[in-house]
Specification:
Blueprint: H1 7-14, H2 29-39, E1 51-56, H3 59-68, H4 73-77, E2 80-87, H5 94-103, H6 109-125, H7 128-152, E3 156-160, H8 165-171, E4 178-187, H9 201-204
Antiparallel strand pairs: 1-2, 2-4, 3-4
C-alpha cells in the first residue's frame, strides 16, 4: 500500500548539501543553541553522549578557519560553523549521566550503579583508537539530527569531513581527549543544491532468509 508522504520523509528528501551561501546572514545564537539542545536526543553508545560542540560565528575566525578547511568557501560565507567534536574519554561522564537518570526517575539506583561500573570498566579498557571510533559513530548520529533540525527551521547546511583536524585542534587549543569530527556550515542558500542519485534499494538491501 502506498501511503501519503510524512512530514519527516519530506524533510529528509528536501535536505540537501548546500555549498553556496549568502554572506552576511546572521543566525541568532539562541537558534543554534536550540538546535543543539534538541539534537542531543540522539542515541549514543551506552548513553555516554561523547559529542562536544564548538560554535564559530565570528566572521574573522571563519575566514581564518577557511584555510584549515582546504579553502572551502562555505566556511567563510555561511552564517555559522558548528564543529562536532568527539570526547574519547566519554566514560568519565558515566556517573554524572546515570546519577541524573536516577534523579529524574528514569532508572533505579541499582541499575544506575551497574551502568556506571560497566561503562567505566569497559571503556577505560578500550584503546584511544577504539574509543575514538565509537565517538565517530555517535558524532555521525547527532550530526544528522543537527542538519535535519536546521532544515526544519528553514536553514541550509553542509557537512564537511575534509579539513585539517590537527591544525583545527591546535588553533582552538582542544584538550587531548576532544577529537575534531566534522564541521557543519549553516546559513541561507545563495544557490540551490543539486539533486543527487541514490543506489537502488534492491542493490543495497537483502533479507537474511
Amino acid at each position: 500500500m502506498i501511503k501519503k508522504q510524512t512530514a519527516l520523509e519530506k524533510l529528509m528528501e528536501e535536505r540537501k548539501s548546500v555549498r553556496k551561501y549568502e554572506p552576511g546572514v546572521k543566525i541568532p545564537r539562541e537558534t543554534i543553541t536550540h538546535i543543539l539542545q534538541q539534537a542531543t536526543t540522539a542515541p549514543s553508545s551506552s548513553n555516554l553522549q561523547p559529542w562536544r560542540f564548538l560554535v564559530i560565528d565570528d566572521q574573522e575566525q571563519k575566514k581564518e578557519l577557511r584555510i584549515a578547511g582546504f579553502n572551502q568557501a562555505q566556511i567563510e560565507t555561511s552564517s555559522t560553523i558548528i564543529a562536532v567534536l568527539g570526547d574519547n574519554e566519554m566514560y568519565k561522564n558515566a556517573k554524572q549521566i546515570n546519577d541524573l537518570n536516577v534523579e529524574l526517575g528514569y532508572m533505579p539506583r541499582d541499575i544506575a550503579d551497574m551502568m556506571i561500573a560497566n561503562s567505566e570498566t569497559a571503556y577505560s579498557a578500550f584503546s584511544d583508537a577504539e574509543r575514538t571510533n565509537i565517538a565517530h559513530l555517535d558524532a555521525g548520529l547527532i550530526t544528522m539530527q543537527i542538519v535535519l533540525l536546521a532544515k526544519d527551521m528553514g536553514h541550509e547546511t553542509v557537512i564537511m569531513g575534509g579539513f585539517d583536524k590537527v591544525a583545527f585542534a591546535k588553533t582552538y587549543e582542544l584538550p587531548a581527549n576532544e577529537i575534531p569530527m566534522v564541521l557543519i556550515a549553516i546559513g541561507k542558500a545563495a544557490l540551490p543544491a543539486r539533486n543527487s542519485s541514490r543506489l537502488p534499494l534492491e542493490q543495497i538491501m537483502r533479507f537474511s532468509n
